[in-house]
Request: fold
Amino acid sequence: MEMKEKVDCFFNYDKAEALSSKVMSMYFSKTPPFDKNIDELFPDAILPKRYEKGSYKHALYLFHSCVLDSNRRATEVYSAARTLAEKIDLSKLYEVPSEEIMRILDAKFGKHASGRSVFPAAKVLKNNSEKLKDEFEGDPRNLRMDGVWKTINNITQFLQYGPGKAALLLKNYVRFGIWNFNDYEVPVKVDRHMMRICVSNDVVDFKKFEFRLKHDIEKPKALRLAVLNSLRLKHFDIEDINNGKVYGVRTQRFNVPLMKLFQRVTLKNNISGIALDDSFWAIGNSLCNKNDHDVCYFSCKVNCSVRSPSDNNGVWFFTRNGNKRLDKREGSKNFLF
Reply:
């Protein structure tokens, strides 16, 4: 069964459902990495010192930490966010000098932390803090609306909050009892880990969106760097590009439709969206990152047939070289369509 979304992209519901079943079987069987406690496995589940689970302060901490969660390792992000919460009163973050905020973050991220996103981190945090004070009585719990998607849309009015990060915040608010949405309604955030797994399992028909790589790519920078990295790792060579054999796809347009597709899966099959989201992230972060065919075959029930090369953010993917699927895993072989 296929579902057509507004982005004019075809999704395979049956493959999404089968993929979810495999992922959840690992979750319930406590297969590694799911043999760890929640606060060992998920950095955003660890509370700052002297914080009470589900409290106003906890909600505020999660609200501000989510905006930092991009292009960095989750362990680094939430370690920095906890340090910030332990040293600064987050309810008055708008009053804190930017230099003080960046001093704390620089100690965790390095001196270029402010340059890794569209807006400098301090500006984002202070702007969101002031908007929260002026429009929502300084309490992010007041962002809740009547329904999951209305709530997600309400959250996205804040800087650095797209639908994905808004879904991540909503997930943690439901997990910790801050909001009371049904677990089955909680959308799965489509991050780089989940997108890579979906690409590897043909949940989306990407062929109609593929483009041929050109040898003189200058922009966007992320695509150019990804091409150079794949050339260095010999996923393909410059002659393949010059001959028009290498195809790629930009996947950002699929994020929200995939969130809605997997929400259909969780609602139909009574699957916790929290558990499914956690599972995709844990598999991607702990197993997929190995980029090793043997790890995929022996340690993961998903057992993806390929793992396409991509940029670090999981936005630009290189799907095939001629009629052969590209696979960046060590010890892998290319597969015919």
